[in-house]
Design a protein that fits this description.
Blueprint (H helix, E strand, L loop, with lengths): L1 H18 L2 H10 L4 E2 H5 L6 H13 L3 E6 L2 E6 L1 H40 L8 E3 L3 E5 H9 L5
Antiparallel strand pairs: 1-3, 2-3, 4-5
Helix pairs in contact: 1-5, 5-6
């Protein structure tokens, strides 16, 4: 099982490296609308045929693109499975972070309730903290809940 997971992560690394280049992302975007010849992929870019060929070869190595011959022309088409693998991986991490933020929210609310009972003071607007989700609590409580591994 670990070997299979390592292979998926290794392929993801290659796929993310392929996505890291804006020219390759533009090629992927173009291919998302359907197959294209190498010549057709070259036209929008001010790059040499050699550079375009290197980008295409990288996409083929990353298993994002399949390149086939049709007569004297090379045709490229997208392998949607490669992009789905990245999407599935990202969704699993999104779930992880959503669950982590949900747990953090519970801890922050508990700490806020304890603090409120101890101080009976209201929280002013400058003490709030935003981390892609708004926690209705003083920032020091959010930070403590976030960093204290003994909670939740």
């Amino acid at each position: 099982m670990e070997i299979n997971n390592h292979m998926v992560v290794d392929r993801l690394g290659t796929t993310f490296a392929a996505f890291s280049d804006p020219t390759r992302r533009a090629m992927i975007e173009r291919l998302s609308r359907g197959p294209a010849s190498v010549h057709g992929l070259t036209q929008p870019f001010a790059l040499s045929q050699q550079m375009i060929s290197k980008h295409i070869a990288y996409l083929v190595r990353a298993r994002i693109v399949i390149k086939t011959k049709r007569g004297r022309e090379s045709i490229c088409r997208l392998r949607p499975e490669a992009i789905k693998t990245v999407s599935d991986w990202a969704i699993s991490y999104r779930r992880f972070w959503e669950e982590s933020f949900d747990k953090l929210d519970v801890v922050v609310k508990q700490m806020k309730k304890m603090r409120s009972e101890m101080t009976k003071n209201t929280v002013n607007e400058t003490e709030r903290m935003v981390v892609t989700r708004v926690f209705d609590a003083p920032r020091e409580l959010v930070w403590k809940a976030w960093t204290d591994r003994n909670k939740g």
